[in-house]
Model the fold of this input.
Amino acid sequence: MIVSAIAAVSENQVIGRDGDLPWHLPDDMKFFQRTTMGHHVIAGRKNWESIPLKYRPLKGRPNIVVTRSLHYDAPGAAVARSLEEASGDRAKAGDEEAFPDRGGQIYRDAFSKGLVDRVYLTRVHAEIPGDTSFPVLDAAWREVWREEHPPDERHAHAFTFLLLEKMSLDERIKPGSR
Ligand SMILES: NC(=O)c1ccc[n+]([C@@H]2O[C@H](COP(=O)([O-])OP(=O)(O)OC[C@H]3O[C@@H](n4cnc5c(N)ncnc54)[C@H](OP(=O)(O)O)[C@@H]3O)[C@@H](O)[C@H]2O)c1
Done:
């Protein structure tokens, strides 16, 4: 199973402010919907609670909420006590791609444990103040696709959709070996 992270990240690595997104980019939201549809999505407990009641669980996708709390109830979603437990649930369900997609702590944990194989990164071309950030990716990540989106009347910022894949150790040692 491929584990993919999906996030919109400003030039200064910000992803959130006051429990919400610090921008309104409808075409990025559509990209998120399209990319994750049919796959497991894992939300940190804070992010889950920030989704308006009428939109949660995210429809068309098995939702898993990660919390250390022993008695957490998330109607419409499964609850896991760690990312590893959530990954086990997805693997059992036979999902070929799953998304630890939601929450600053979730991203940090997933990258530091080496759980992520692929990143759908929307780079928002602006320096944005915020209180939640995305990890800085190291040289292990190779860009395999990109699409530019200019600013327009619905989007205050330009942004670029990027698909990044993790290189094997061999590929990092011998660039161009694949
Ligand atoms: N730009 C984007 O693409 C994007 C995407 C997603 C989220 N965001 C933003 O990110 C912010 C939310 O992120 P956040 O960092 O504040 O919170 P979060 O990651 O959504 O949730 C944190 C909570 O998740 C639980 N948790 C985290 N890691 C865990 C682990 N390893 N094991 C068990 N439980 C774990 C804990 O819940 P308990 O306290 O209950 O134990 C923790 O308090 C919001 O501003 C949101 O808008 C942005």
Notes: The chain has a mean pLDDT of 91. The longest helix spans residues 26-36. The chain has one domain: 2-173.
